[in-house]
Design brief:
- With 389 residues, the protein is of the alpha/beta class.
- The chain has three domains: 70 residues; 180 residues, Vaccinia Virus protein VP39 (Rossmann fold); 117 residues.
- The protein has 14 helices and 18 strands.
- The strands form three sheets. The protein has a nine-stranded mixed β-sheet with strand order 3-2-1-4-7-9-8-10-11. Strands 13-14-12-15-18-17-16 form a seven-stranded mixed β-sheet. It has a two-stranded antiparallel ribbon with strand order 5-6.
- Strand 17 and strand 18 form a beta hairpin.
- The protein is globular, with a radius of gyration of 25 Å.
- The two termini are 47 Å apart.
- Bound molecules: S-adenosylmethionine.
- S-adenosylmethionine binds next to helix 7 and helix 9.
C-alpha cells in the first residue's frame, strides 16, 4: 500500500467511517459511497474506509474478532498469518522465555501482535513504508512493541534481541517465489541468525525442499482444516525437537506426528484407502503414519495408504473401497450410470488426467453421489470407487 493511502487509512476520520460501514453488504457499497460523498466526505477518504471495512469483513475468519480493530491492506492480508497459527508461533517464544523478539518481516503485524499480547517485547521491522504505517497502528496498544520501517537484516544490529522470528515475503510483482533464495529476506540469511540468538523461528512455504532445513533444527509442517499453510523452522530454545513434525489443526482439535522420513512398504489394496493429510505428506512422515496405523502404500510412488481393517487417525481421511475399476472413461461412464451417480467427487494422485477433464466425459446422470479416486496400483492406472468412513 502506498504511503499516502496508508496514512489516510489510519486517520481518525477513516477509522471512524470504516466502523460505521461495518457489515455493509457489497450490494449497498455504490449507493452508500455516493451518499457519503454527498454528505461532504472526501472521495479518497470514503474509498479508503470502504476498502478497510470490506477487508476487515474478509479477515474475520482468519484473524478472528480482532480484525475489526486492525488497519489492513489487501496485499498485507493475503500474507498475514492466521490468528490461531500466530498464537502457536508466539507460544514457542513464550516457552523459550524470550524477552525481546525481532520480527524481521512484520507485514501488518499479526505475528508481532500475538507476541505482544503475551507481554513479550517486539521490535517489528517492515521494509514497505505504507505497510509499516499500518503495522504501527496495529501494534500501538502495546507499548513494548515498536515498528521500524527498515530493511531488517541491516537494522537488526542496532537492537539487542534474544530471539528472532521471520515470515519472509514469498511474493513479488512476478508472482509467488518457491525458491527460498528468492524469499525476502533470503531464507539462508535469516537462518544464519540462529547462531546469535537463544531462539529463532521462520515461517516458510510448505513446498520448502527438505534439504533447505539445516541439521539440528525442527521443521513443523502445519495444516489448517486440510490446507497446508506453512512449515515452521525452529532453532535453539524455540525448537521442541530435532527433525520433522506435522501439526494437523482441524476445527478445535490439534494433532501432531513426528519422526523420520523413511518410506512405507507398498502392498496389495485392502478394504480401506487412506489419504494422508497434506502436512504429513509434505513433512515426509507417511512412513511414520503407516507404522502407527499398520498401513501400507498402494504403490511405492504414491502417498495413498491402505489397510484391511478400519484405522481411526486424525492424520488421514479414510475411505472404504467399494470397487476397483480400470481408468477407462467408457468403463467408468457405464459403471456410474448403472449406479445412478449424478454427482462425483474426483481425487487423484499419480495420474495426469484431471477431474476437470474427466468429469464432463462421464456425462453423469442420477441422484446418487460417489467418490472416485484415480491413482496407480501395482504400477498400473486404476479408478477406485470409495465412500468416506
Ligand atoms: C509474509 S509478510 C509478513 C506477514 C506477517 N507475518 C503477518 O502475519 O502479518 C512479509 C513482509 O516482509 C516484508 N519484508 C520483506 N523483506 C524485508 C526486509 N528485508 N526487511 C523488512 N521487511 C521485509 C514485506 O514487505 C512483507 O510485508
Amino acid at each position: 500500500m502506498d504511503l499516502d493511502t496508508a496514512r489516510l487509512t489510519v486517520s481518525d476520520a477513516c477509522l471512524a467511517l470504516a466502523e460505521r460501514l461495518r457489515d455493509l453488504p457489497p450490494s449497498e457499497e455504490l449507493r452508500t459511497g455516493e451518499r457519503l460523498r454527498r454528505e461532504g466526505h472526501d472521495g479518497a477518504l470514503v474509498a479508503a474506509a470502504m476498502t478497510l471495512a470490506s477487508l476487515r469483513a474478509q479477515a474475520r475468519t482468519r484473524l478472528g474478532p480482532r480484525a475489526d480493530a486492525l488497519a489492513l491492506s489487501r496485499a498485507g492480508l493475503e500474507q498475514a498469518t492466521r490468528a490461531r497459527v500466530a498464537a502457536l508461533h508466539a507460544d514457542r517464544f513464550e516457552e523459550a522465555g524470550s524477552r525481546l523478539v525481532a520480527d524481521l518481516t512484520c507485514g501488518l503485524g499479526l505475528d508481532a501482535l500475538a507476541l505482544a499480547e503475551r507481554g513479550i517485547g517486539v521490535v517489528a521491522f517492515e521494509l514497505d513504508p505504507g505497510t509499516a504505517v499500518l503495522a504501527a497502528h496495529n501494534l500501538a496498544p502495546y507499548p513494548h512493541a515498536t515498528v521500524e520501517n527498515a530493511d531488517s537484516l541491516a537494522a537488526l544490529a542496532r537492537h539487542e534481541v534474544d530471539a528472532v522470528f521471520a515470515d519472509p515475503a514469498r511474493r513479488t510483482a512476478r508472482g509467488r517465489r518457491h525458491d527460498p533464495a528468492d524469499y525476502s529476506p533470503p531464507l539462508d540469511a535469516v537462518l544464519d541468525l540462529r547462531h546469535g540468538v537463544a531462539a529463532l523461528g521462520v515461517k516458510a512455504g510448505p513446498g520448502l525442499p527438505h534439504e533447505a532445513v539445516p541439521p539440528g533444527m525442527e521443521a513443523q509442517w502445519v495444516s489448517v482444516d486440510g490446507d497446508v499453510v506453512e512449515v515452521g523452522l525452529w532453532a535453539g530454545a524455540a525448537a521442541r525437537r530435532e527433525g520433522h513434525a506435522a501439526l494437523v489443526l482441524r476445527g478445535d482439535e490439534a494433532h501432531e506426528i513426528a519422526g523420520d522420513t523413511h518410506r512405507a512398504d507398498a502392498g496389495d489394496l485392502g478394504e480401506y484407502l487412506l489419504e494422508p493429510d497434506g502436512a504429513v505428506i509434505r513433512a515426509g512422515l507417511v512412513g511414520v503414519l503407516a507404522d502407527h496405523i499398520g498401513a501400507r502404500l498402494v504403490d511405492p510412488q504414491i502417498a495413498y495408504l491402505t489397510t484391511d481393517s478400519p484405522a481411526a487417525t486424525p492424520f488421514a481421511r479414510a475411505y472404504r473401497v467399494l470397487d476397483r475399476l480400470p481408468l477407462d472413461v467408457k468403463v467408468l461412464k457405464r459403471d456410474l450410470r448403472a449406479r445412478g451417480v449424478g454427482r462425483v467427487e474426483i481425487k487423484k494422485r499419480g495420474v495426469d488426467l484431471t477431474p476437470e477433464q474427466l468429469r464432463p466425459r462421464l456425462a453423469l446422470k442420477g441422484d446418487a453421489a460417489a467418490t472416485l479416486v484415480l491413482t496407480r496400483l501395482d504400477g498400473r492406472h486404476a479408478a477406485l470407487l470409495v465412500e468416506p468412513v
